[in-house]
Design a protein that fits this description.
By secondary structure, the protein is of the alpha/beta class. Helices cover 63% and strands 8% of the residues. The protein has 21 helices and 6 strands. The strands form 2 sheets. It has a 4-stranded mixed beta sheet with strand order 3-4-5-6. Helix 19 links the parallel strand 4 and strand 5. The longest helix has 33 residues.
Length: 498
């Protein structure tokens, strides 16, 4: 019990200094969440309060239920773009119902340990994912950089100067928070003609209220929302697990990915019950949190709680926060998120790794769909890996002096990609020749490999040869005994040693 208590204490804060850092980091994140939550609501075609309330609830709930401390989850564009047709055709109440089902699916995914599928995402794909997100974060700021006066550019430059230079003097207060405070004071004090948070959309007044979705509980409703819920759940978990891995790397700590799956599901269910849309982890805000000193659950909780305070109490003042201040913070996030070493490594790393990384970046940036980019990267990684293993496969033929016996020695992995090389390696033999196929240095992985062996053995026997296959390892023997038609290894009869 004492050990559990100390572990829980470390997850929230360790001492007064860390608590102060966590609180300040959460405040910075809360301010950065506002314009993005409003923007995501506009993308989804719903009232700004739907995205803002979602960010409040998800951040607060995930602080208790999540498996990656210091990571920020809220309403995201990745989920918002998926529900546009649902909101347009059926209304916002169906969005709430779909979000609840999304959460249930994510909780089931956690129970089924589907987070283990992340083992098949290569480092090149993760690097491409990070770089693509950095590019998208910067591209999202472009509307605030076009058609504006010189005051906007001057404020952004000043904000970046504060963000990067202040840490050289002191790290007691997160520099992004200082930048936002200073630029807000200048903008409001001098009445500068710059865009403000209030220009993004009306901020909600009051607290979110609990309510069940106003939809009929019928199979027709399930038929409508299920496709959206499945897609939202998959995209949300994918982005959350990838972001968790990135935060793991940034903080040199591990996280509980299975708990994160269930935690994301629970947070989305509660968000929908309080009038919010679905969401997931946010790499931009997570980077802000970590670089501002946030490592534990307190910073995540503070982000949600302070955002609620801002909306309920300080709404009019928050609306006057200049957008250039937040743009400067997001540009800092974009610069910090991008893996600059990946550019240098284009020459140092194997070409296939660079191709996978660049493909992931290109697909994400072109489609603005993170799941498509990661899927393309994973598939391409699989193709390249299969090709590499296939090239390591070989069949060598040696013939006895009298020409009455030939031995084919097979080395490497026998699976679908090596079938063609395997079958082409066996030439026609004279009738009566004794053929030995030695697979002691090979391994059979699938029915394609077994089928190729069947095909070769059948052809040689039709030519009148005496064929013997030797050297199976136990795993290969099992699959051959189960699926082969023309050759059995003898394991089932006890003829092949275990």
């Amino acid at each position: 019990m004492p050990t559990q208590f100390s572990s829980l204490r470390r997850q929230w804060f360790t001492d007064g200094a860390s608590a102060r850092r966590e609180l300040l980091a959460g405040i910075v994140v809360a301010l950065a969440l506002i314009p993005e939550a409003i923007g995501f609501s506009i993308i989804a075609g719903v009232d700004p309060r739907v995205g803002l309330y979602a960010s409040v609830v998800i951040a607060i709930v995930i602080a208790f239920t999540g498996g990656r401390t210091g990571m920020i989850s809220a309403a995201t564009a990745a989920v918002a773009v998926l529900v546009i047709p649902l909101v347009r055709d059926h209304g916002v109440e169906y969005l709430f119902a779909a979000t609840i089902l999304m959460g249930l699916i994510q909780m089931v995914a956690g129970l089924l340990r589907l987070h283990l599928l992340m083992q098949f995402v290569s480092r090149s794909v993760i690097t491409g994912f990070v770089n693509a997100l950095a590019i998208l974060i910067f591209m999202a700021q472009i509307p605030q950089l076009t058609g504006v006066g010189w005051e906007t550019y001057a404020m952004i430059a000043g904000g970046l100067a504060i963000i990067y230079l202040l840490p050289r003097l002191t790290k007691a207060v997160p520099s992004p928070l200082v930048a936002i405070a200073v630029l807000s004071a200048i903008s409001i004090g001098f009445g500068l003609p710059v865009n403000t948070v209030g220009d993004m959309g009306a901020l909600p007044e009051g607290l979110p209220a609990f309510a069940l979705p106003d939809v009929p509980l019928t199979w027709e409703t399930l038929r409508i929302i299920l496709p959206y819920s499945l897609t939202m759940a998959a995209v949300g978990l994918l982005e959350s697990l990838l972001t968790a891995q990135i935060v793991d790397d940034m903080t040199d700590t591990d996280s509980d990915k299975q708990r994160e799956c269930g935690g994301q599901g629970g947070a989305n269910i509660v968000a929908a019950l309080f009038g919010g849309m679905g969401g997931c982890a946010m790499i931009g805000q997570s980077v802000i949190n970590v670089t501002s000193g946030g490592r534990g659950r307190l910073s995540t909780f503070t982000a949600g709680a302070f955002l609620l305070f801002l909306l309920a109490v300080l709404g009019p003042f928050v609306g006057q926060v200049p957008m250039p201040a937040l743009v400067a913070v997001m540009i800092m996030v974009s610069i910090g998120t991008f893996s600059w070493n990946s550019i240098i490594n284009l020459r140092r790393h194997p070409p296939v790794s660079s191709i996978v990384m660049l493909t992931t970046v290109a697909v994400v940036v072109a489609t603005h769909d993170l799941s498509l980019g990661v899927l393309a990267g994973v598939l391409l990684s699989g193709v390249f890996f299969a090709g590499k293993v296939q090239r390591m496969f070989a069949v060598e033929r040696t013939e006895a002096v009298d020409g009455r016996m030939a031995t084919y020695r097979v080395t490497g992995q026998m699976f679908f990609a090596s079938v063609d090389r395997f079958t082409r390696a066996f030439q026609s033999e004279r009738e009566g020749t004794e053929i030995v196929i030695d697979v002691s240095a090979a391994h059979f992985w699938d029915i394609s490999g077994v089928g190729a062996l069947d095909k070769v053995v059948a052809r040689l026997r039709r030519e009148g040869c005496v064929v013997e296959v030797i050297g199976y390892n136990r795993a290969s023997a099992d699959i051959v005994d189960k699926f082969a038609l023309h050759d059995k290894t003898g394991v089932e009869m006890g003829l092949v040693p275990n």
